[in-house]
Specification:
This is Lipoprotein. α11 runs parallel beside α13 and α23 runs antiparallel to α24. β1 and β2 form a beta hairpin. This protein is mainly α. It is elongated, with a radius of gyration of 38 Å. 67% of the residues lie in helices and 1% in strands. The protein has a domain of 77 residues. Strands 1-2 form a two-stranded antiparallel sheet.
Length: 568
């Protein structure tokens, strides 16, 4: 209303001034008044974020002024237009409107900026276009797509041609930044792998070896193996070649029978080597090759009965147990592991064996192995897996098992299993840091909201004493968990903690709410973020976030009203 009254006064003043002109050209006076009225309408539309219509009317206003110069060049009005830099058109100086506002408004109304026109207008009129470039860069980088890349390229081209044209030394640095950003569009990162695809890709059990390399020419391969077997007693390279060739053969290979015979011939031949210094390494190569293709029993017998193997026995035990484990023969692998004397090596192998039993859901064997190596972390992981496995079929048993778990022994990655289980009884777990409770609550939030609230409640209580950066971090994390449990509570908690939450923290919460479909709560977070805007860069960031979140335009305008650019 104040703006309207001001314009009414301004127009009345213009009318008085024009009517007093000595040339008496009423039509020139009338055209100038109409131009001012048209610009007033453009201003109203501009304030509402309707940049396309505002630009159209602003252009009409300018054309009316230009028409006065053509039709009535001798009028006092025309003289004022070309000579008085302080002449107002409506509420703005005409010279400023002509040189600065109209060109910017035309750019803001460009269809290429339609999807982010509000963010662009704020950036353009406040000198923050490079801030917008940075936002677009991050958006394309984090969520690469052909459509986003093409839109970004169009925007960069417009900025280079219309906002930062070549030839002006002031634009050198800005042009360099935009050109570099444009070049980066050609090197988009691959799309992020979804959890489902990742799970499918890594679903192959660790208990099985990778697929064997393909043998291109079977006949040539076997002929070469036969040759090396016959030469094994006088050429050390022959036994090395057989060991290398064994990587291509397994018990299911068509070449297995023939290759096995060649290895046995080679074993017999290397025993004939008179020099012990040459015989021992050749013997080791053949034993390892036998184990590699699955002849573990033969390899083990040779290791334990041949006195020449005394010094290499431990190395062979390690190789044989590994090959047995990779082939899925876990019981035999365990029997060989017991023969390993080095405690550190044995513990490493036992840990792998426990993992293999765990993947088979042989929880009893996995727990037995974890007790052998006295690994509390491994025991906690196994118990957690077992509880998850039993949750649907025997809930009572699953809860008993969960009660035995020491949460401090669990890695954050292992806690992910809780998404499919229930809450761990909280008795005796008070020594955990607040962040751990919040993390467990986050992992439980999607599958067991009641359990998540129990964990989160303790996290909130423990975080009450947090200070400084820790306090801000915990407040943001707690809100992030609440969004998945009850978005409305997340908004209420954020409002309570708004004094310490920063602009970026609240904007992040808005995105999280949008991701789970909580549009109303997302909008509340955006409104909260709007109240935290301290600089034009934040306003550009907020506008871009809202316009790329499929929020209705009227809600975007309402939220961003305090930060929309001014028509001056």
């Amino acid at each position: 209303m104040m703006v309207k009254n001001f314009f009414g006064a301004a127009l009345a003043s213009a009318a008085v001034f024009l009517c007093s002109c000595s040339d008496g050209k009423a039509s020139a006076n009338g055209d100038y008044v109409k131009a001012s009225e048209t610009l007033e309408k453009a201003l109203s539309l501009f304030d509402c974020g309707n940049y396309a219509e505002a630009a159209k009317l602003a252009k009409e206003a300018d054309e009316k002024v230009s028409g006065i110069l053509k039709k009535h060049p001798e009028s006092d009005v025309a003289f004022k237009i070309v000579s008085d830099d302080n002449l107002n058109l409506g509420d703005v100086k005409y010279s400023n409107f002509k040189k600065s506002i109209l060109p910017k408004l035309s750019i803001a109304a460009d269809p290429d900026f339609a999807e982010i026109d509000i963010a662009f207008a704020i950036a353009l009129f406040n000198g923050g276009c490079l801030d917008l470039v940075s936002l677009i860069n991050d958006d394309v980088k984090n969520n690469p797509s052909k459509a986003k890349s093409e839109r970004a390229e169009n925007i960069y081209d417009k900025l280079l041609s219309d906002v930062y044209p070549q030839g002006d030394s002031k634009n050198t640095e800005a042009r360099a930044i935009i050109l570099k950003s444009k070049e980066c569009l050609k090197e988009l990162p691959p799309k992020k792998e979804t959890a489902e695809k990742r799970d499918a890709r890594v679903s192959t059990s660790r208990a099985f070896a990778a697929p064997l390399p393909q043998i291109k020419d079977s006949q040539k391969f076997l002929k070469e193996a036969e040759k090396n077997a016959s030469m094994a007693n006088y050429n050390l390279e022959a036994s090395k070649a057989l060991l290398e060739a064994s990587k291509f053969v397994g018990k299911t290979s068509a070449e297995f029978e023939a290759f096995s015979k060649n290895l046995k011939v080679a074993l017999s031949n290397v025993k004939k080597i008179s020099s012990k210094k040459l015989r021992i390494p050749a013997l080791k190569n053949i034993i390892l090759a036998m184990s590699q293709i699955g002849l573990n029993a033969d390899a083990l017998m040779e290791v334990e009965t041949n006195s020449d193997c005394a010094d290499m026995r431990q190395d062979c035990y390690a190789a044989i147990s590994q090959n047995l484990m990779l082939s899925g023969n876990l019981k035999d692998a365990e029997a060989v592991m017991k023969k390993i004397e080095n405690p550190r090596t044995k513990n490493i192998f036992y840990a792998c064996l426990a993992e293999s039993f765990l993947e088979r859901k042989d929880f009893a064997s996995a727990l037995r192995i974890s007790n052998e190596i006295k690994s509390g972390a491994m025991e906690s992981k196994i118990l957690l897996e077992q509880a998850v496995d039993l949750w649907d079929s025997d809930n009572g048993k699953a809860l008993e098992i969960l009660a035995k778990i020491n949460p401090q022994g669990l890695a954050f990655a292992d806690l992910d299993k809780l998404r499919n289980a229930a809450s761990i009884p909280l008795n005796g777990a008070s020594n955990l840091p607040a962040a751990r409770y919040v993390e467990v609550a986050r992992l439980l939030a999607k599958s067991n909201k009641d359990a998540a609230l129990k964990w989160l409640g303790i996290g909130v209580a423990l975080s009450a004493n947090a200070k400084g950066k820790d306090s801000v971090l915990m407040a943001g994390e707690i809100c992030g968990v609440l969004i998945f449990i009850n978005p409305k509570d997340a908004v209420l908690y954020a409002q309570k903690m708004r004094g310490i939450l920063a602009f970026d923290d609240i904007k992040k919460l808005a995105f999280s709410a949008m991701e789970i479909g909580a549009k109303e709560e997302s909008l509340e977070f955006f409104k909260m973020a709007s109240s935290k805007v301290l600089k034009p860069k934040d306003a550009v960031s907020l506008a871009y976030a809202m316009q790329t979140s499929n929020i209705s335009r009227d809600k975007v305008i309402e939220t961003l009203k305090p930060h929309l650019p001014k028509f001056n």
